[in-house]
Amino acid sequence: MGASYNYDPAKIEGAGIDRMRLELGDTVFNPGKLTAALCDEEYAAIIKQHKRWKKAKFKCLEAILMRFAHQVDVNVDGLSYSFSQRVEFWKKLYDDTKKDVNVAVPIADPRALNGMSGGPPYFYEDMNTNPRGIGVKKEK
Q1: CB burial class (10 A; 0-12, 13-18, 19+) of residue 35?
Q2: Per residue in 100-132, pLDDT tens?
Q3: Is the per-residue pLDDT at 59 higher than 80?
Q4: In this structure, how many other beta carbons lie within 10 angstroms of the beta carbon of residue 55?
Q5: What tens digit of pLDDT does each residue of 6-35 get?
Q6: How far apart, in Å, are the Cα atoms of 71 and each of 4, 33, 35, 88?
Q7: Are 68 and 37 in contact (CB under 8 A)?
Q8: What is the per-residue pLDDT for 114?
Q9: What's phi and psi for 60, nearest 5 deg?
Q10: Strand partners, 62
Q11: What percent of the chain has pLDDT over 70?
């Protein structure tokens, strides 16, 4: 089975090949094999492999850069095609996406918060209570 190259703007709302093509600027291909960054099957495999959209986008950009790393600019009888400009665009997008993908989200260890790690619990009942009663209205 050969590679396929399709883009349907009506399908960009879902997290699929068409949305990925739009976000990466890979929507014009004529003929697809020569001008498309990746074929539909490659996009589908990468998207399926990664749960997070940003990670899938990052991996698609990685694959695109690998594919075009060896391409050169072509000029035939006044008709030119600049692969280097496309690669510069994808490289910048790759660098920007890499920053987003590598952002770590701190996650607290529930065992430490509940005192199950061997030490006292981090939070405990009435931990904010003022023992001297300063600033607290006393009932009469």
Answers
A1: middle
A2: 887 766 676 666 666 666 677 667 777 788 777
A3: yes
A4: 16
A5: 999 999 998 999 999 999 999 887 777 777
A6: 21, 14, 11, 12
A7: yes
A8: 62
A9: -65, -45
A10: none
A11: 80
Q: What is the DSSP string of 32-100?
A: HHHH-SS-HHHHHHHHHH-SSHHHHHHHHHHHHHHHHTT---EEETTEEE-HHHHHHHHHHHHHHHHHH
CA distance 81 to 98: 28
> What SS3 state is found at 123?
coil
Q: Is 24 within 8 Å of 34 (Cβ atoms)?
A: no
Q: Are 42 and 49 in contact (CB under 8 A)?
A: no
What integer is the mean pLDDT of 41-49? 96
- Per-domain boundaries in the chain: 9-101
- Name the one residue in this structure whose structure tokens are 């009506």: 10
Chain centroid to CA 81: 29
